[in-house]
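idk why but the lab printer keeps eating my pages so im just putting this in chat instead. protein + 2VS:
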Amino acid sequence: MTKLHIEPIFDVAQIAHVEVLSDKPKETIKFFTDMLGMQVIEQLGNQTYLRAYEDNYKYSLIVTEADEPGLGHVAWRTTSPQALERRVKALEASGNGIGWSTDQHGHGPAYQFTTPDGHLMEVLWEVDYFDCPVENRSKLLSRSQKRPLQGVPVRRLDHLNLMSSNPAADANFLIENLGFKLREQIVDDGYVLGAWISVSNLVHELAIMQEPTGQKGKLHHVCYWYGVPQNLYDAADILKDHGYFIEIPPNKHGISQAFCMYAYEPSGNRVELFGDAGYLILDPDFQPITWEMKDVPGNGDTWIGAVFPDSFWNYGTPVTAPVALKAVAE
Ligand SMILES: O=C/C=C/C=C(\O)C(=O)O
Ligand SMILES: [Fe+2]
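predcted complex ->
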């Protein structure tokens, strides 16, 4: 019996940028520039635009001054203008569409929408590429500019991890409307506590994990990539030396198999640093991997390295007062 093959959607190509909110923007920007070697390329009102040295678009991070930390929005770039039109039609029909935003810096018209949990997202096609000044061009032609000299410079934006009151609802919304594919998940008695979904050969451009008190729309972390696991030891060294909080030292994840570490930037948003991207998914018929929650500690979370602290599972931004733990299984 041939399996029913649902034709995959290849309309979304990649994560394009993330906007994080900060109530300490100067300190947040200092974290990303001094420690992670990112470069401020624009300051417009209460928004600062930053790039990593191998981002080929103008920027990949926006830091927006706000009353509290958290997610501003995340932008996904489609594979073509026609793909953008197809995805917008699906989003309009989903009932979660907001509408077109046409005045954002560094890219063309973006169609905005929310996940069922309320995270603000957008899809776009037209982007401004980084135009490197001649004196800063690298002889390494695949590199958008010379490797910066400050901190341990990250190379590119890798993924986003969101906290949700209902990870399955958010993951399925993005699978159905944007063509994300489920790669790994954590279930507990059939209830989805975490989903790792991607539009590429990476294990995830987006992870969605249970917010234990049922709060909606929170950020778990934004992740930048080094591609060299050893870089994490230098990054951890300078972060510690300069007084930043390291939640999880260099470590290999079971889920995604990536070499990682976690720190908090000064306003409290969690930042993950990836040494490598773990494993690649090349099988067009890859079957999602399901972890039972009981098997995760010591295998799924950290394959090699420190035991994950409780904060990994219950801290996100904005920080919300712990309310009585609702039964998470709907
Ligand atoms: O319990 C597993 C957590 C895995 C997290 C990731 O793979 C990630 O956030 O990149
Ligand atoms: Fe992550």
